[in-house]
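Re: [ENG-882] Designed sequences occasionally contain unexpected residues at chain ends

Forwarding the minimal case from QA. Structure tokens:
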């Protein structure tokens, strides 16, 4: 069943679900085997406007963590204009923002959009998820093929060069050896790495 849940909460965190479109079809993506998040169905019929997102924000924002996260059942940068404007609104009410992204925004839009990302998002979490282009494509199955991996690394580097607070993440299910290689790459680029536990 399709719903239009654009804002959802998990514990004391607020998340914004901007799209169901994604350039990847990852083996470990939570939407493959979870029809909802804590009872909140994130498959949406229509992508939201700025007004629709703001309308769904909780009235009691101060009861939640100050950081609001762009992360749902899709790659948030597909709905970039809405992301940008919602982020501007959130900054105006003294909230901080984070994006969880596959780092393929420049491929998706056919141009460098990192200036928008860095302005909109106080923390940019790029899902690295593998240590080589071939392994990344094996697990993440990007519609852009193996070039997606180099593109996401370039995206992270550009965001960092523009002053963005960039973090890499990997899922532990790729195995200890590949996680170790990802650590080496992250250290080489000077970008912190966060290891996510696959549930």
């Amino acid at each position: 069943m399709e719903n239009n849940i654009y804002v959802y909460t998990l514990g004391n965190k607020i998340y914004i679900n901007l799209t169901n479109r994604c350039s990847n079809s990852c083996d470990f993506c939570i939407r493959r085997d979870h029809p909802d998040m804590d009872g909140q169905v994130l498959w949406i019929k229509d992508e939201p406007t700025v007004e629709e997102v703001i309308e769904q924000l909780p009235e009691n924002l101060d009861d939640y963590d100050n950081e609001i996260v762009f992360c749902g059942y899709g790659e948030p940068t597909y709905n970039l204009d809405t992301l940008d404007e919602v982020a501007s609104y959130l900054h105006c009410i003294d909230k901080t923002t984070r994006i969880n992204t596959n780092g393929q925004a420049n491929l998706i839009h056919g141009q460098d959009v990192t200036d928008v990302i860095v302005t909109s998002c106080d923390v940019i979490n790029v899902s690295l998820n593998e240590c080589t282009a071939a392994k990344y494509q094996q697990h993440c199955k990007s519609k852009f093929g193996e070039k997606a991996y180099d593109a996401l690394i370039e995206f992270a580097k550009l965001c960092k060069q523009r002053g963005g607070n960039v973090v890499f993440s990997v899922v532990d299910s790729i195995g200890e050896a590949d996680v170790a290689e990802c650590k080496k790459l992250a250290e080489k680029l000077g970008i912190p790495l966060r290891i996510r536990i696959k549930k």
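QA comment: On inspection the terminal residues look reasonable. The mean pLDDT is 95. Proposing we downgrade this to a documentation issue.
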